[in-house]
Amino acid sequence: MNSGITRSFPLSKWTIVLVAVFWLSAMYLNQPWKKNQITNDVVSYYSYLPATFIYHDLSLKFVENNSFFGDKFWPKDAPNGGKVIKMSAGLSILYAPFFFLGHFTAPLFHQPQDGFSMPYQVCLNISSLFYLLLGLFYLRRILLMFFTEGIVAITLLSVYFGTNLLWYSTVDGLMSHGYLFCIINAFAYHTILWHNSANVKRAIFIGLLAGLMTLVRPTLIICTLFFVFYDVYNKKSLFIKIERIKQNLKSILAIIICFLLVQLPQLLYWKYVTGSWFFFSYIGERFYFNDAHVLEGLFSFRKGWLLYTPIMILALAGIVFLKRDKKVFVSAITVPLLISIYVIFSWWCWWYGGSFSQRAMVDFYGLLSIPLAALYEKMFIEGRILIKSMMSAIIILLISLNLYQTKQFEEGMIHYDSMTRKSYLTGFFLKLPTVEWYESLEDPDYDRLVQGYPEKISESEIAGLKEWQKIALKAWNLKAVSCEVSTTGDLDAVRYERGPWERFSIIHVGGNKIALRADNGKYVSSDREKGWKLVADRENIGGWEIFELIYLGNNRVALKADNQKYVSVGEEPESRLVANGESISKRETFKIYISYKK
């Protein structure tokens, strides 16, 4: 009886059912729709839908002077004065059926049809489950062409529960990655079928899917190389592939036309809003191809992909086992993967902001499942009992580690962008952060890195700062030194943000002697009559307004005042700056940030 059930509903399908049950349980426990899910990048991915179908204005003029839309649309300013949505429209197309479902059901729950109320939130979350399961469906079909039922089931379990796909289909399920996991799997599946039996109908699917994944994330045009290199593994197969393309020019033309048709709405939108057919909407951001951070992206404690998602080491190792009938995948996977890794980690923000592991790599997990399954096949089908036992233990360990680290990230014990070796090791078994853990974090200097400067500041760079270049200082309590204009001008470290009150101009006096001018236009003074407290209240530079700037390395400095004492930050909550330190300890140490915009 059990074997009959297995035949009618095989193990790999039960694996997908398990994923669905897990997802539904996570949603039931967390109930994400009770808070706004349309945040961060999702704001820009989603904006096209309410702007078009509810507010009927893609120019976003309705956003101006309306506080309701303050956190709901984040347009960028185009050179012609237009308001342009940062992300392209691909994810809005994928959201669309669920957006309309939320729109038409909102009145049934007595909710406003504003694009953001509870029914929209719920339906968008359902979309993440739909595309996750669809992606697993396509992945299962691909794997079953080449592997046994058991290997496919283990692979599906590993790819979901052993990677950050779990996070990006549940807690951050509205981000693009689960959707792209689905689209790329569908693209790969139809590519394989086209190569088995080429026809125009299949080519249309390939073109539309290629256009859609590129419309979600333009750099994923690289994934079209999967089609180009599929079944190319030596010189002979290359010539056969060229001949196949020549014989199926109608299919190739259909792919190109469908790809371009999908891009057309975006081009029309850019023309309408910016006046240009092609527009780079990531204004002020860019790739630095001469300074790719590949090693950091793969291995660093800040956001190393193979550190936080180590089961993918097995997938990479599995590439060497793609032989016999699976050699058709070798170039099709390795070429786009290697190029994509280089491109992904050439982005100025190579750690991709606040995220768990390397979220940009989630898109490729369908393709990487193939070599992962090849490795499992080698270990479980051809391996001896000891190898099978060791492999089983490794898989269980890596899945457990991913589940544990996912929970750590959710609870804040894996910081979203500031992890270091020390914070990782210190916090690995902690349930709550400690002072030592907080102090070990190193937040990236976003302003510096987006300009293409090295992350580490040199002493000569500080010495060459111009007066228009503002600096900020972060104290031992992880808060920025501030001079609030509404107060007496006392300097303290009580704000996490680095706004105007937290930025100071450096005036070089000579050597490493400097003066600091606060946002109120006054010079910072270590005033003996006020107990050597630092106060920004002086019109001119005298002895008390001159500080010795001591560079300590690792983007840290200390300041020595005219009384030959080091500037120190006192205890919270006041956290006043006082020149009373006898030596340089953590309270006399500041991380320095530099602004590069006039």
What does this 3D model show about the protein?
This protein is 45% helix and 11% strand. With 598 residues, it is an alpha+beta fold. It folds into 2 domains: 409 residues, no CATH class; 140 residues, Trefoil (Acidic Fibroblast Growth Factor, subunit A) (Trefoil), CATH 2.80.10. Strand 12 and strand 13 form a beta hairpin. Helix 6 packs antiparallel against helix 7, helix 7 packs across helix 17 and helix 15 crosses helix 17. The N terminus is likely disordered.
What does the secondary structure layout of this molecule look like, with pairings?
Elements: H1 2-8, H2 11-30, H3 41-46, H4 48-53, E1 76-77, E2 83-84, H5 90-105, H6 118-144, H7 149-161, H8 177-196, H9 200-216, H10 225-229, H11 235-247, H12 249-274, H13 294-299, H14 305-308, H15 311-317, H16 330-344, H17 365-380, H18 385-410, H19 421-427, H20 435-439, H21 446-450, H22 459-463, E3 470-474, E4 480-482, E5 492-495, E6 504-510, E7 513-517, E8 523-527, E9 533-538, E10 547-553, E11 556-560, E12 566-569, E13 577-581, E14 590-594
Antiparallel strand pairs: 1-2, 3-6, 3-14, 4-5, 6-7, 7-10, 8-9, 10-11, 11-14, 12-13
Helix pairs in contact: 2-6, 2-7, 5-6, 6-7, 6-8, 6-17, 7-17, 8-9, 9-12, 15-17
